[in-house]
Fold each of these.
Amino acid sequence: MLRRTTTISGIDAPARLAELLDHHDYLADEGVTTAAYLALRMGRPLFLEGEAGVGKTELAKTLAAILDAPLIRLQCHEGLDAAQAMYDWDFPRQLLHLKAAEAAGVADVAALEGEIYDRRFLIARPLLRALETQPSVLLVDEIDRADDEFEAFLLEVLSDFTISVPEIGTISAATPPVVVLTSNRTREVHDALKRRCLYHWLEHPGFDREVAILRRRLPGCAERLAADVARAAGRMREAGLLKPPGVAETLDWTEAMLTLGAAELDPALAAATLGALLKHREDQETVRAMGLLTPGGGRG
Amino acid sequence: MADGVAVTGRIRDGRSGDGPGPVAVLAGFARALRAAGVAADHHRTRNFLAALGHLDAADGRDVYWAGRLTLCAGPDDLPRYDRCFAAYFSASFAAPRRVRGTTVSVTRPVAAPYGAGEPETSGEPHAPAATASEAEVLRHRDVARMSEAERREVHRLLALLRGARQPRRSRRYRPSSHGGAADARRTVREILRHGGEPARLRRRVRGTRPRRVVMVVDVSGSMAAYADTLLRLAHALVRAEPRATEVFSAGTRLTRITPALRHRDPGLAMDACSAAIPDWSGGTRLGEEVRALLRLPDARGAIVVIASDGWERGPADLLGAQMARLSRLARRVVWVNPHKGDPAYRPMTAGIRAALPYVTDFVAGHSLAACEELAALLAGDRPVRRGGAEDA
């Protein structure tokens, strides 16, 4: 059994990290392992891109589990601003404090002014929380959804791992958090931000790894069914679908078939549960027409 | 490992006296990558060397991953990186993993002959029949029938086109001096500044951002007379809103040419376009190219402009199906067909007939005036009207 807590210094080789990832049921290939290893060792943010469902967010979660650190997640969206991402003052509490001081007849105005900008009135949002929590894993999810102005701002935090609050001063992390940024490429992220990061393009897993993932995550899954599903999914990813299935979807699909008692890719069950895998009617029709719902289907 | 041997050899060579040191060998690799079009600047090169400090610099796969993770910045870089890595470290070296599914190119046989129904391929470009009398002004003249000097003048005027954009509402709020909902945060902050005394109510409204325009310019043989003008129009649009415009060329494959069009000078931009577009004057497979476009995230909510005469080489039903999906994703689909400048033109080809039901606006774009109208259309962004089919 591995130790419950692992520190970054304990991870001294990519192979060691691969072992830990495997132990936490994340079956990583060489690229992901090396990327995560370098991110930990070099203290640099890891920028992950790839199609939806290839395991970008999952990697951040697994790293948090390995380091036994809290996962602090910043979900990006349009209109995200500093107050939502870094910190905000708790205005109602500050007002209350002022009113209470007034009622108590406090005369020292200068001291009172200092008091209302005390650290206890500062609400830490994900970025500040990540700097103040050690160790921690900071997940900046779907950075491509935030406005491009937000990147300039993130750049500052991620290059120095400090946040300056005008009323208090600079708050910096003693040891920088492990940072994972993900992007679905709905927008090109600015190069200045990428340059601070290690860049990795995640792909759908190959046949062998997908079989291993299915069997690991779904203990009741027979080797036969896992192989059939992985083969079908692999072919669907090459069939030019609107939305090729990701690992999350193949897991859902397999689980749905398992629930219905399948031990192999049964065409009737596969068709009945297809909605768990493909979310476009056109894709479902294409897959049916190509005969991909039978074991070994779609060949010849 | 064979891979390791190749790289080690190269780096060890560097260590042996007369040759460059290992750092120089690795920096040389970064330089080779830059030459191949990957933005491996000195900052990234430094990261590369730092990353190797944590890995085994004598192992080919470690060198490969350290370089790929630090020197590349996007999926387009990866095939270049693989090629460059193989070429630099060993002629026989193969990169650990082939990169799949990261390019947007649609391939088809380049040498496929023009099919029947293609207009005449020699001499006079198949411009619309003369709609312009000698007396008509330059702006209404068909660019395909212009002299070199007249065309230069039109290009000059095109470069002055403002290419304004109808804004869309952003999710982001901005302070407002009048109107809008109360901005609680700023109001309370204001009150705080006055020691708790009620102050002025602050308000906020939604900001605006320019609506995205995605333009696809057909550069196949049948569009040769118009492609230059339409690319200059695209240049004006990119210049007007560099962050909210994407331009692709469509020939035998879909190629993103937005970076080439970012040059300020139209002439330089056109030169960069010529270099970037690999398939001038070939055929077109619009169906597959629209499909490739749909795989990219750019079209959602955007105004999509397709500039093509619709001489489709692929199956028309494929084009129809892709256009149907495009019309559901995009805010509006504008089809620019230079032949529409001819009053006698009827959309008869299978391709255009399949596409028209899903087109919001069907416009000409054969002259300066038509280009100006198109720009005004984008700036006005009138409510969507599915009116393309009535022209058929």
Note: Residues 339 and 345 of chain B are 6 Å apart (CA to CA).
Amino acid sequence: MVFNRREFLKTAATASAALALPALGSRAFAADAIKVGALYSQTGGLSVAEKLLANGVMMAVAEINAAGGVLGRPVEVVVEDGASDPKTFSEKASKLILKDKISTVFGCHTSASRKAVLPIFERRGAMLFYQTHYEGFECSRNVVYSGAVPNQQLSNYIPWIVEKLGKKKFFIVGSNYVYPREMAKVSKKLIEAAGAEWVADEYLELGHSEWAVMVSKIKESGADVVLSNVVGDSIIAFYREFKNQGLSQEVLPICATVTSEIEIAAMGAEYAAGSYTSFPYFMSIDTPANKSFIDRFRTFVNDPKAVTYHSLEAAYFQVFLWKQAVEKSGDLSADAIRAGIRGQTYEAPGGKVTTDPDNLHCWLTPRIGQWQADGQSKVVDAYPAPIKPLPYSAYGETENNLFCTSNGLDAAKLKG
Amino acid sequence: MLDILFIGLSLGSILLLVALGLAITYGAMGVINMAHGEMVMIGAYVAVLSGIWLKASLLLAIPLAFVVTALLGLLIERVVVRRLYGRLLDTLLATWGIAILLQQAVRLEFGLSFFGIHVEGLGAGLQNVAVPAYLQGTFRLAGADINAYRTFIIAVTAALTLATWFILYRTAAGMQVRAIIRNPNMAAACGIDVKRVNAMTFAFGSGLAGVAGVMMSGFKTVFPDMGTTMVVDGFMVVVTGGVGSLFGTILSSGLLGEINALVAIGTNDILARAVVFGVVILVILVKPSGLFSFKGR
């Protein structure tokens, strides 16, 4: 708790200068800088997670500027607050595209906010870079998806649970909205393909924190593994109740798709120890690149205990993918960025990522982590290389039969 | 079957924990305290902070949270609520405003975050409280696995309810509170210092909410918004049970808890919540003043 007077005055001076700048209409600066948008919730219920993502973007931009910017010009971030409300997200997206004339926005966290801004980006011809793992089932020429889609979280996970953990009976539980339901669709296919079965598929309200009944149902169900697509603060109450009702992760492990370093830190690591999560990125990935990323992030947010996680890493590296696309095309229009980003590769903190030339989703490396008592994961299984993103895998999309191509969605396949 | 009843009992006791404070403030003073949930939240934060700064256990946090939230309640009563007695809708709006202020105060670490000062334990992030080892896990009772922490919650709720009953029905102060519930003007005419008793009642109700917060921190996430949804549950119980009736509050929280558990076991939690609200609507349709209410005069 150190209050540094000079630091405060400096911040105040910068802030007032920043506020005064648009009013003065300083042309020299505006013409030089490349403007990009950062559209995340700075306030409201989702701000806890989304501020971190905004920090990931800001840090990448700061590093790019320190290294000479893009096309020799500095990058300026216009930050807008989505206020945890999809309607505000769409208003602010319009503002960024129409008023600020910005062609690239990094942002959105929930599917609800992404769906709310999508028509604006498509109609106005701008690009959205979206970093959160999501349910797939989307094919837009105006979005670069740098987070995982269901096949990148589940295609190695389910077979691994069945074969390596020897589990045969899945209890699928999730929050009641589109992501968990789509994840359940994909996992049911994979569970059956692996020769196992699912005994239940249950949902709770978003934000539900009373788990007594559900955990007792899990206990009675005869399941030998829990597949959790529960999101947000419900996760913490779930893991705590699980342990408080005497269930053990050794006998009946929770295998999750959303539980990250953030939730583990918030629930107390002892409640999660022994459970699993599938993500392309974990804070514990032991490479110099990742260690340096964690250090830089902690310095950037001025919090020596800050944790990094999948969406944050994706928020960070997507800025570099954008930079490479702009430099390849030499142009800032949405069309040029889209052309430039196809097949673009970057060495992210978690390893190599590539933007798929067909569907603009990223090739990522699925990894399975087992949570340890210190709140970090031990990577117990990983694909040797990044795998192709298939946003329509729940509807039968395979590598040889793409639904989403560079020409857009082949809707006929969706019906068949 | 025993374990389902136990779950219902534990759900009911959590409802009661939240509703108890509301029941006496609403019953005695006719104040709809929208900041009640924030008192729960602050109680939970007292548990978080006392864990971090004092290395205190959950048990020590209970009296600590009671004192902190009771004092805060007293302050709110003195500064705002006092001026608004008899204006039901105004107190609703004012306490709602207070609720937002309290949330922001915790989120912005009492405003210190503007100056780059960070108070460990506060802020926008999620927090947790360590539950002592002997309260984790289960024990067996009559062939059912009974959850230790929930048993503890039930015990604490029972103790608090008993204490509240004792104060209300066995002390002079309680007699004054009951007199004010029945008829504040007559009570004042009989020489009861209504303002002082009201302030004490409000503080006591806030203190109970603080203890509820400590209890909840053991199985829920602690974050600035956690209290918002609880007020609804609290009022649901108070309205169903009958305003100002301690017995009604106890019975309706038990009833709603058991209905919730039974429906949830048979179907799912989402439907269970809908059924609970359905029952509440039915009750207030049939008996507009709740299951157990005083006869109007």
Note: Residues 1-114+145-286 of chain B form a domain with the ABC transporter involved in vitamin B12 uptake, BtuC fold (CATH 1.10.3470).
Amino acid sequence: MKNYMDWIRTDYFPTAFCAGCGHGIILKAIAKALTELEFKREEVVFVSGIGCSGWIPSPYIKADSIHTTHGRALAFATGVKLARPDLTVIVVGGDGDIASIGGNHLIHAARRNIDITCIMADNNNYGMTGGQYSPTTPQGAKTTTSRKGHVEPPFDVAYMVKAAGASYVARYTVAHFPQLVNAIKKAITTPGFSFVQAISSCPTHFGRRNISQDPYEYLDYLKKNSVNIKNVKETDEIRNKITIGEF
Amino acid sequence: MPWKRIKLPIKPGRFLVQGDEAVADGAFCAGMRFYAGYPITPASEVITRVQERFEESGEGVYFQGEDEIASIAACIGASWTGVKAMTATSGPGFDLMVENLGYAIFTETPLVIVDVQRAGPSTGQAARPSQGDYHQVRYATHGDYEIIVLTPWSCQELFEFGIRAFNLAERYRVPVIILTDEAVGHLREPVVYPEEIDVFDREHDPDAPPFSFDERDAGPMPLIGDGKALLITGSTHTEAGKRVTQDPEIHRKIVKHLIGKIQHNVSDIFESHEEFIEDAEIVIASYGISARSGFEAVKRLREKGLKVGFFRFKVIWPLWEKYVRERLSGIKKIFVPEMNAGHLSRELERLVNGEVISISELGTNIITPETIVKEVEARL
């Protein structure tokens, strides 16, 4: 397919995403990656879970998609891949979906290094259910279940997946569109388990309480607060930054 | 025609086979070529046998999941590519599978689950039998639906039901549970493997919508990889798979379909084994291992001149209520031996006009024919 819009199921528009949600950017990044890699529709299957992230492939990507139970997308995808190794299997999930309820499936998929690509649309909170804290909510951040500031430290999911044995791990934000498309392309074409943590914007819930309710200001924040992992040595320097790049 | 007669893909003949192995062999003969499971007593022998069959045939993929949640999820994913998939577990593992069992029911995914019952609740006694999952397998997941549950009483039937479970799962696009227990699962007895068997393969139609609202039957099934951009979801959906999360009418249609496709065909699905019912004044009704003792008790009571009949449920769900009501009407007393607090007896109480007497074993001992005979004689 020549145009990335060929991968988008526009007949179900308008999307379910809130105004200013970064998930639309991730949708476009996936569609662009598939277009540039010249995939045919029957060669790729998407598997998603429950939450805002589940809507990215199901129904908006025009390919086979299995919209599964909360957190279990990687487990369903494992069955698809084992039964049809010739198919390219891509899982799209959220931070709650992939790293919390589905955390065990994530580390075991990485350990097995099964040839699946997992894109984690990370908006730092549970958007669908009203903005509760997730495993990637920064310490001190305000959510509907951490009204005075979150007491727990977050997971560094990219490091965890790398340590568990994944072949390719990258993290970019939705404010780094070309890098994100490139990372998704590399993830899909790298044999073994690939993980792309796509930091997304959630103006409706997380942004309103912590960054900004304005979509542009949110993206600007993501851009200004990101630092490439190659350019930093000391962890102190990056404590309050989003580290991006390939891990 | 999706029905076909095939030559048995393993060696026919008469063999000494363990129950867990027999169900694995039956499933393999029915065409099961994907297995995912998590180790659990007393079901672990199933994956061992599956592995042997896959290795000697060079066909099939097995996978040990990180837990039972992942195992059943992998089976569902595999099933949508067109392969026949199975998992086996026991109560504690079945508990974990329930979430995705609901998903399989709602997405009408053909699938077979073997539940080798052990004593519960919780970890209970891992290597002792029970029939405590009678209602769990029926009402495990939230919402309204119908499901198929087969209850074999021998190693021979574990083999045969391994085949039948897949035929029903493929025919009605529904998860089918083979509900056995530690006693039958770990029993070894002679089993006859026939030369030929009948198998049903799902009706694959790449152009069909993934779901149906037909209240009388299951629809054909498109597959992942057909190139039709299939939408599969466990959320309320249109026939095309579009998520519709606020429309009561669509939800009503789906639930009526899930119930209707099974209930409308209950006479094809339900199966019973009956002896001496015609002249019976009292009946011993049971299923699984308890029915074996029940049948022996019937023979001993007959020798004593009592008009005792035998009714064994080979399928406990769907319960063909009309048929059971008719067959057991006019029976004065129905004795129901089972290794639980009286699950089948409660079902029968609402169906029959005679007195239903539960012979309940809450420990982990198999109910003996002596116990049943004594109980019947005491209550005559």
Note: Helices of chain A lie at 23-36, 73-83, 95-101, 103-112, 157-164, 177-189, 203-210, 215-224.
